[in-house]
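Side project, low priority. Logging it here so it doesn't get lost.
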Amino acid sequence: MATRAAAFAAPAVQRFDPELDRIVSVDAKLEVIASGYRWTEGPAWVRDGDYLLFSDVPANVVHRWSRASGASPFLSPSGLAGPIPASIREAGSNGLVIDGRGRLVMADSGTRAIARVDLKTKRKTILADRYQGKRFNSCNDLVIARSGAIYFTDPPYGLTEGDASPLKEMKANGVYRLNPDGSVVQIDGSLTRPNGVGLSPDQRTLYIAQSDEQHPVILAYALDPAGLPQGSRVLADFRSGVDAKLPGLPDGMKVGASGHLFASGPGGIHILAPDGRRLGLISTGKAIANCCFGEDGRTLFLTSSDSVARIRLNISGW
């Protein structure tokens, strides 16, 4: 596995609104820190240890990167263990987050579950793998609320035949809330390809990315005090980027402490104001699946196709 640090030659940041200047400089340098993977996803920064974890979904491996040691395999298999049947297209973990107790929580695409991993022992615990008795499709991304509830998406990407897969038990490609008591509530069952998920700092808005070429949007759901949706609206529509054949679709996202969204979409990571205004775009020239804040909170890590990159911000995402 190649690991390297290199400057990104092309301009990485495009400015659409002066508000971008306080978030990231247009001359900020994009640095590739590791490459040679199949499809990188779900980065998560481990503060207690000062290192990055990220998924290589089709390879079924979580890798660990640090400034001192570079990148190396950390968890293999990261998802489905044992022989991988032809009916499973993405056997590994996808989205990763670190919970309030420093444990890794993952959207385990191959196992079709939300799982927790002890970072010291690497022991995995399944938190949820069913809704109303039916197995999930292939859990994709997740975010943890301050209450401990986990919001997650469940598209069929991990199944070889997608919606037509004989393994698919759920009619919906749903958005769910895993409550602290272990119960699961369906938030939305109407989306075709729910993917990335984020929460506003005040916990009153849930964001869901829809990776559907026919309806490539980010939706904003107003949440009631119990954390359940009261309605939704389109925050951002990426049809123009899809029509222009820019690489990528609405996918993973992170919401900074300022309320700004760092959301993948056609062309790279779109920096959006809480009201949906597009402030800027961070590009690598390839599709960017997801991102996270790390180091001192002012570094944005990007999982981009076969590589991982980072760029410095002017503000902390934490």
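Brief comment: Residues 1-9 have pLDDT under 50 and may be disordered.
Revisit when time allows.
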